[in-house]
Amino acid sequence: MTHNQMNRREFMRTSAGAAALGSASQATLLSPGLLAATPRAVPPSDRVRFASIGTGVEGCTILRAALACPGTEIVAACDLYDGRLTAAKEYAKKEIVTTKDYRAILDRQDVDAVLVATPDHWHAKITQDACDAGKDVYCEKPMSHTVEQGFAMVDAMQKHNRIVQVGSQCRSSIVYAKAKEIFESGALGQVTAIEACIDRNDASGAWVYPIPPDASETTIDWERFLGDTPKRPFDPIRFFRWRCFRDYGEGLPGDLYVHMLTGIHYVTGTNAPPLRAASVGGLFRWTENRDVPDMIWTLFEYPSFRLSLRCNLNNESPGMACWYGTKGTLEIKNDVLTFAPQNTEPQPEGYSILGWPEKLRKEYLEQWRKEHPVPLPGKSPLTQSAETFQAAPSYDYQVDHMNNFMESVRSRRPAVEDAVYGNNTSIACHMANASYFKKTMAVWDGAARNIRT
Ligand SMILES: NC(=O)c1ccc[n+]([C@@H]2O[C@H](COP(=O)([O-])OP(=O)(O)OC[C@H]3O[C@@H](n4cnc5c(N)ncnc54)[C@H](O)[C@@H]3O)[C@@H](O)[C@H]2O)c1
What we know:
This protein is an alpha/beta fold. The chain contains 13 helices and 18 strands.
């Protein structure tokens, strides 16, 4: 049984399901009732004809997610490396049109929507061209490579009235939807501090990917890969490990902060860049073939809370996000959500009266108890224990994010993570990098639409 076939009551407390969750044995299973849209039967007239532009690791993952969405047809794929065009056909599970020139995809009348899953330096140009060609766009995160590009992408979405959805899938996650519900219920009280991290400790996590043995200028369109970045001789390391280079990516903020920022913006109802950001970090271990840090830590200032984000490629630890409120703590760790109420029961002062004379101390305590009768059994906040929630083991939030996109394409309702939303999280990533590389505080100037350092 998939999560989509489960009972649509908001929660399902199933002992069998909970037992399957192992360590989170008391977890409440989350059901799809919290989702913005769930997969449904789609008439043939409503099918969306979809093509990928950039069909590497994420492109193939998204093609698989798209195939799991009813009413979606994969019709074409574009990539610059022959091997990935072959992989695209394998993932599409049929013969599809393939090309190395994305404009050939945009010219096709049988394509309604495109995926942009290229390295980040190509996101803006392809998204703008796709909007101009009348296509809807699912653009991978981080939406932009520069602040200026982000606003141009927002303008393209609005000018051409297109659906543009950015690909940070936790925006459609049932776990984050539950976190948002708890946050909005007020159960956390006033949240002033949030922290999150994603840490890794292996070569793959540090983007040191193997180079396919057939990589050459014959199998790869290197000139097109470079686009408007500085001209360089063919370099398969740059092509396959592009995240390590600022010309093509935004390092750890663009790769990983953006996921945490998307989830935190969603839960807290934030749709604006942070006010200020201050980063420290360094390149400590993965020093070869890289011009971005392998550890970065940033403190962001938002109007009503402060946020600490960290990515460290030198130690493995569970990815987590934690909201600290006056009434409770909310934590998402490895996709398990825990809400732990704080003990807010009034307490008599116990510390500073240690320096009072015994008589005054006694009187104070007696008076305090008169004014604060012992709560009735079951009414004390102390009796509330932590609650844990988890999606079913088969849950795939990438499919939900893709389904949300497909539903927006059909209904013309704005995407859950549209270009405005994606621009704001991208700006936060650019601020983290600006602060790190310039060794100073990065301040967002909304009126001027730029980062002051
Ligand atoms: N949402 C997620 O969880 C997630 C996960 C991984 C990657 N991503 C994002 O997806 C994007 C791609 O990452 P990846 O890991 O798949 O990288 P990748 O290197 O595996 O694939 C990128 C592909 O883009 C192709 N490409 C480059 N320029 C192109 C162009 N002008 N036209 C057509 N194709 C072009 C390359 O040939 C390459 O095959 C990035 O923006 C990344 O941040 C998102």
